[in-house]
Amino acid sequence: MVLAGCATRQPNPAPAISAPAISAPGIAVLLSDRSPAIVGVQREIVKRYPQRIETYVLGENESLHRDVQKTIQSSDQPVVVAIGLPAARVARSLTGKKVIFCQVFTYEDEELVTAWMKGVSAIAPVREQFRTWKKLSPNLNTVGVITGKGMSGLMAEAQAAAKENRIKLIHVEVRSDKEYLYTYKRLTQQIQGLWMVPDHRVLSLNVIRDIMAHSVKEGKDVAVFTQELLSLGGLISAETSVADIAEHVLTRVRESEQSIDVTGAPVVPLTKGVIKINKVMAQRLNLRIAKSLQRMAYAP
């Protein structure tokens, strides 16, 4: 279903009256759903973008997605912002548009990147995650990360961040949540910590619980992607900021307005995140929270 959400702000009139004012182009914003992570980014975009915005929301009925795609295709807006994977999939079928996607983790597996379609990372700043983790746990030398296929971009960024902090990062690809759990238990003797990323293709809630229980039992550091997982035994969590996502999306929008295609990297990293440290787990692991990290301390 298409929700008519169109807001217009007229620019100040020019002093000259010899020619009519030309309105600046706007953007179309396509939401996958009405979940807080999706709507939060959309609201931040509305706050920051002064031109016209056409907003569309995909419903649960996938048979209607084609109708939404046709409506956006016929729109006169040259740039489309797709928030979430279903929205990005629909936007991938557009022609003659420039698309910026966000809140999409598996963009490589989905083959979303083209000359005219690029994105913003769905992961909190990786360098900041590893820098904070190493400062909290100075003896951390070897970390494992387990994902599904098609994560080369993120892994390149993570390997660089790990190397900067004198950490060896071991990456293993798996095909299911059961294989994830088996692989992690096998890796336990080789690593001091697990960097858990939000790859829901190979992570289920039950397996996450099993992984966290095993980690607590084995005394392993686990860096998680949401604060809620700290209560299960995560040591440190790193979440994205919707304001930061929106700012990077609009930077790409402005850059693309001046070019034929979407310029720059396939996916640009975020620069601000929300990091929390589990005080209970830090104490259990005999880790001292430095004064500079005290503001991140949290008791789940």
Q: What this model shows, in words?
A:
The chain is of the alpha/beta class. Helix content is 34%, strand content 20%. The protein has helices at 36-48, 65-74, 85-91, 126-136, 152-164, 177-187, 205-218, 242-257, 279-284; strands at 5-7, 27-31, 53-57, 79-83, 98-102, 117-120, 142-147, 168-173, 193-195, 221-224, 236-240, 267-268, 273-278, 297-298. A 7-stranded mixed beta sheet has the order 1-3-2-4-5-6-12, with helices on both faces. It has a 7-stranded mixed beta sheet with strand order 8-7-9-10-11-13-14, with helices on both faces. The longest helix is centred in the C-terminal third of the chain and has 16 residues, at 242-257. The radius of gyration is 21 Å and the shape is elongated. The model is unreliable at 1-23 (pLDDT under 50).
Layout of SSEs?
Elements: E1 5-7, E2 27-31, H1 36-48, E3 53-57, H2 65-74, E4 79-83, H3 85-91, E5 98-102, E6 117-120, H4 126-136, E7 142-147, H5 152-164, E8 168-173, H6 177-187, E9 193-195, H7 205-218, E10 221-224, E11 236-240, H8 242-257, E12 267-268, E13 273-278, H9 279-284, E14 297-298
Parallel strand pairs: 2-3, 2-4, 4-5, 5-6, 6-12, 7-8, 7-9, 9-10, 10-11, 13-14
Antiparallel strand pairs: 1-3, 11-13
Helix pairs in contact: 1-8, 4-5, 6-7
